Amino acid sequence: MYPVKRSGQRLILREIAVADIDAVFAIYGSEEATEHLSFEPRTRAQVGEIVARSVASAAAEPRTEYALVVVERATEDPIGFGRVALDPHQQRGATFGFALRSDAWGVGYGLETVKLLLGFGFDELGLHRIWGARSPLNAASARTMAAAGMTEEGTIREHILKAGQWRDSVVHSMLDSEWATIAPVSA
Ligand SMILES: CC(C)(COP(=O)(O)OP(=O)(O)OC[C@H]1O[C@@H](n2cnc3c(N)ncnc32)[C@H](O)[C@@H]1OP(=O)(O)O)[C@@H](O)C(=O)NCCC(=O)NCCS
Question: What count of Cα atoms within 13 Å lies in the side-chain half-sphere of residue 49?
Answer without folding.
Answer: 4
